[in-house]
Amino acid sequence: MNAAYRAGYKKSMEDAIQSDTSGRFSQILTSLVQGAREQGPADFDRALVDAQELADACNEDSDEMEIKFMSILCTRSFPHLRRVFQEFVRCSNKDIEQIIKKEMSGDVKQAMYGIVRSVKNQSNYFAERLYKAMKGMGTDDRALIRIMVSRSEIDLFNIRKEFKETHDCSLHEFIQVETMVGDTSGDYRKTLLMLCGGQD
User: Fold this and answer.
1) Is the C-alpha dihedral spanning 185, 191, 194, 195 positive or negative?
2) Structure pTM?
3) Staple partner for 92: which of 12, 55, 125, 165, CB 3.0–4.6 Å?
4) What pLDDT score was predicted for residue 4?
5) Distances (CA, A) of 177 to 125, 134, 195
6) Rounded CA separation 57/30 (Å)
């Protein structure tokens, strides 16, 4: 992805992020695009240590808390983080999503929350993003296109399944209903429906 971005825009994703964002939010995004996330299964002993570090960070000032959360959430593998989240509940008697919502704010909060939701259930996370992109007045075209195109050959079937279970409506049907007002009509709408791949 980094190579494709550089080829298309003649600059690195890191440079683009750092020129358009600032502070901790910029650091989080930069860390993510550097591709330093570990791969592999959870290390149970290390997960307990990580969970305790996150729990302890909740008692520190917001700056230190954000640094610690970023160092773990942006670098550990998804299987490992799922184990960390389980251990975090045992260490703190709280869910990590609740902590992020309560103790963080702004773009940092949204970034951390998005990472956690994606780790816990990536298909559900994207299903909710699609719902929010189309629901109500206006359509978030950039989010809609990005998700539909980028996930179409990866896990769109699973996203469709999560969408149906969460909203009692298939993604295909939702695209048809929510785009009848004209925001996404014509060939654009047909393309979205083709990417979706049919009813569930």
Assistant:
1) negative
2) 0.80
3) 55
4) 80
5) 21, 10, 16
6) 22
User: Which CATH fold topology does 38-120 show?
Assistant: Annexin V; domain 1 (1.10.220)
pLDDT, tens only, 109-136: 999 999 999 999 999 999 999 999 988 7
Domain boundaries, the chain: 1-36, 38-120, 122-196
CATH class given for the domain over 122-196? mainly alpha
- CATH topology identical between 38-120 and 122-196: yes
Per residue in 143-155, pLDDT tens?
A: 999 999 999 888 9
**What type of residue sits at position 67?**
I
Q: How far apart are CA 57 and CA 35, in angstroms?
A: 25
Decide if 12 contacts 3 (C-beta within 8 A).
no
**Cβ 139 vs Cβ 178: under 8 Å:** yes
Give the CA distances from residue 105 to residues 24, 34, 63, 111, in Å, rounded to whole numbers and listed in that order. 11, 24, 12, 10
- Distance separating alpha carbons of residues 107 and 196, to the nearest angstrom: 30
Distance of CA 49 to the CA centre of its chain: 24
Residue 184 is predicted with a pLDDT of 53
DSSP state of 1: -
CA–CA gap between residue 44 and residue 76 (Å, rounded): 13
